[in-house]
């Protein structure tokens, strides 16, 4: 489009196509997807030592153990809120330097709300389970999925779905769906992971390490894609 | 008694009749689209994306501002002057209407292009 082409009207198909192309260009220029994933990866990886050293572990003579993940409870709510504030700051700053407004606020609000939901669920569980007997029948599968969804690693995915919608970013949507499938259906985030001889702490650290690495790889991939698009 | 005029209902008429001359213009439609998508846009970004001279872009912005479709905010960042634009509610409505009418025009063209209608 240039000054010579400023005649009124034109082919409606072409005009509509130009409108769509311009809107897409703006959305691409507003994106900082890799920063969001990088911050979340750093928060996830930094949370591993908090979980490891903050865990209250009591093992009995019969070999059974009870554990309470105090580190997760105290680390994640402030860490997630700080992460969403950092991501929002970077989105607004970068968009402004490019001459654009940012559309990150609904993502930050969703992130804050899901953090509150996760904290409330963990407080409720911490208050309920010590004074109630463990259920005799095995819990249904959906209960475990719901439990993982309200864990920090699950709520990260829920908020990322909102970011994908805001940015109309199909690549981020696909990445987030794969991430959620990994966290909700594959990795046992709340029950431990690894060979039977592994200690509980190591068993719980491995899924977090995998989640953090996946987010980090996602950040690297989106960073490479963004560099290609801005060339 | 009802007065009958020869003017058809606007919606029953050809979609091109409802096009707003202020908006139905390539550059101005581009400005409204970018501003709507960006929420807030700086003069320099518009100039780059639309490949216009500063003077030319200013003329189009004046037309849109006088029509009440955009708001212009001038300020400084350090020593550098920056002009930011936002879309008004009337601007959002005008853009939505223009896109709806363009789609109607395309649909009408596709209908008349149908070989069975020939």
UniProtKB/TrEMBL annotation, chain A:
Keywords: Membrane, Transmembrane, Transmembrane helix. It comes from the Bacteria. The keyword Transmembrane applies. The chain crosses the membrane at residues 34-53, 73-92, 104-129, 141-163, 170-193, 205-226. This is Uncharacterized protein. It comes from Actinoplanes palleronii.
UniProtKB/TrEMBL annotation, chain B:
SUPFAM superfamilies: Winged helix' DNA-binding domain (SSF46785). Residues 27-106 form the Winged helix DNA-binding domain. InterPro entries: WH-like_DNA-bd_sf (IPR036388), WH_DNA-bd_dom (IPR027395), WH_DNA-bd_sf (IPR036390). Pfam families: HTH_34. This is MarR family transcriptional regulator. It comes from Actinoplanes awajinensis subsp. mycoplanecinus.
């Amino acid at each position: 489009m240039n000054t010579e082409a400023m005649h009124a009207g034109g082919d409606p198909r072409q005009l509509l196509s130009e409108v769509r192309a311009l809107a897409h260009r703006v959305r691409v220029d507003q994106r900082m997807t890799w920063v969001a994933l990088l911050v979340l990866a750093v928060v996830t990886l930094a949370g591993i030592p908090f979980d490891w050293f903050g865990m209250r572990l009591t093992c009995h003579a019969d070999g059974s153990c009870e554990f309470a993940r105090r580190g997760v409870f105290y680390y994640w709510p402030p860490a997630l809120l700080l992460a969403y504030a950092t991501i929002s700051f970077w989105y607004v700053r970068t968009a402004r330097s490019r001459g654009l407004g940012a559309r990150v606020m609904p993502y930050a609000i969703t992130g804050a709300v899901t953090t509150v939901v996760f904290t409330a669920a963990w407080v409720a569980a911490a208050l309920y389970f010590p004074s109630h007997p463990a259920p005799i029948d095995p819990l249904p599968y959906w209960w475990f999925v719901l439990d993982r969804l309200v864990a920090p690693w699950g709520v990260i995915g829920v908020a990322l779905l909102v970011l994908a919608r805001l940015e109309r970013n199909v690549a981020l949507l696909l990445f987030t769906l794969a991430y959620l499938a990994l966290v909700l259906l594959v990795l046992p985030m709340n029950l431990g992971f690894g060979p039977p001889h592994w200690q509980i702490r190591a068993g719980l650290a491995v899924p977090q390490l995998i989640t953090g690495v996946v987010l980090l790889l996602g950040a690297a991939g989106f960073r490479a894609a963004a560099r290609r698009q801005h060339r | 008694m009802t007065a009958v005029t020869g003017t058809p209902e606007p919606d029953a008429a050809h979609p091109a009749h409802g096009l707003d001359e202020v908006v139905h213009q390539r550059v101005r439609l581009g400005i409204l689209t970018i501003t709507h998508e960006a929420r807030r846009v700086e003069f320099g970004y518009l100039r780059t994306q639309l490949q216009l001279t500063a003077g030319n872009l200013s003329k189009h912005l004046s037309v849109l501002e006088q029509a009440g479709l955009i708001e212009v905010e001038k300020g400084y960042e350090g020593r550098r002057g920056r002009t930011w634009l936002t879309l008004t509610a009337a601007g959002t409505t005008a853009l939505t209407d223009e896109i709806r009418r363009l789609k109607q025009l395309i649909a009408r063209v596709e209908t008349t292009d149908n070989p069975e209608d020939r």
